[in-house]
Write a structure and sequence with these properties.
Elements: H1 2-23, H2 28-31, E1 40-46, E2 51-52, E3 57-65, E4 71-77, E5 85-89, E6 93-99, E7 104-113, E8 117-121, E9 125-130, E10 137-141, E11 146-151, H3 153-160, H4 164-201
Parallel strand pairs: 2-11
Antiparallel strand pairs: 1-3, 3-7, 4-6, 4-9, 5-7, 8-11, 9-10
Protein name: Translocon-associated protein subunit beta
Transmembrane segments: 164-185
Keywords: Endoplasmic reticulum, Glycoprotein, Membrane, Signal, Transmembrane, Transmembrane helix
Amino acid sequence: MMKGLLLTSVALLASSLLQVSSDTPPSSSSLGSSDDPARLLVSKQLLNKYVVESMDVVIKYSVYNVGAVTATDVQLKDASFGPDFLVVGGQAEVNLGRLPPSANATHTLVVRPIKFGYYNFTAAQVTYKSGDESAEVLQGWSSEPGEGYIAPFREFDKRFSPHLLDWAAFAIMSVPPLVIPFMLWHSSKAKYEGVLLSKKSK
């Protein structure tokens, strides 16, 4: 009989626990959040094959949202170009606005180096918020192109310029050595032919 009462008590206790568990709403942590934060991947690319002093350099920024939430207030800033560069197109700091999940955005910046030598092209910074209700500002960095060589303009011009002026000067300088002997020969020929005609006429 004691055994039967014990089994009955265990069954009632289990039933009450099951009832409490079914009446209690599951917590958000137990469900697992489906709203993963927005995550941005940023690439920074130099599109020029050669980076040359006093010539435009095109930099392309690509921003990808690999998260499940829209990234808001996306700010892209590249402070790596100091006084040795002139910004001639685009902006080094730009607001990209909103970036939905699986979306991407691109931005182009054109700078002009005023000095030659080795230069370390470092990463750009991106800041954003995850969703419309979040006040937390998240921060990330782009890929780094790394160290590159800025060639002097004279060196680049010497190797790759078509040298049209040089060829024109060469052509002008080549004319007298060719034309003067031809004129002398033509003059001598005319005189010789004149002498022959005069002899035949006699």
